[in-house]
Amino acid sequence: MSRQILIDMIKLRAAMVENSALELPEAIFYPSVNMNGLKTIRELATFRFTCRKCEDAPCISVCPAEALEKDEDGVITRYTNLCVSCKSCVTICPFGTMMTDFFKHHRNRDLFYDLKDEKDMERFVKVCPEGTVSLTDDDKLPDKNIYRLNEKVLVKDYLYSTEKQ
Ligand code: SF4
Ligand code: SF4
Hints:
By secondary structure, the chain is an alpha/beta fold. The chain has helices at 9-18, 41-50, 58-62, 88-92, 118-127; strands at 4-8, 26-28, 68-70, 76-78, 112-114, 133-136, 146-150, 153-156. The chain is globular, with a radius of gyration of 15 Å. The protein binds iron/sulfur cluster (SF4) (2 copies).
């Protein structure tokens, strides 16, 4: 298995709370010429692992742009081309799932790191707040709250669901 990154979402959230002006570097898989509205690994991980997957999801009902929906596994997905960054979903979510900076249009291309590129992956680890992202050869370790997001990314977070990941 090739090297992967481990993103500690618990520490990342703490870093964001400590410094609300913190502009986090972002890991992505598909860089595009137009970076506006790009979906990041952090957003994917949040909807997959942190979101409580509410049955009548208020975030979906409140969205004025019909930009949110659930996939077949009940995981929320956001259509960035429809989202107007109003943050109504952030306000109504009873669990504080989303970080508000998901919804700003990232204009600084230097903040994006493509995880398909080994060198970019190393650079990403170096620029993230200390202790929040590391390189690893390990697989998922549910006993240590470490789960797999995809072939390149492991995420450490407290799971609401008791389902096996
Ligand atoms: S920020 Fe507004 S438009 Fe975007 S997903 Fe949330 S509620 Fe919908
Ligand atoms: S309201 Fe919050 S916890 Fe519930 S489905 Fe939406 S994002 Fe997830």
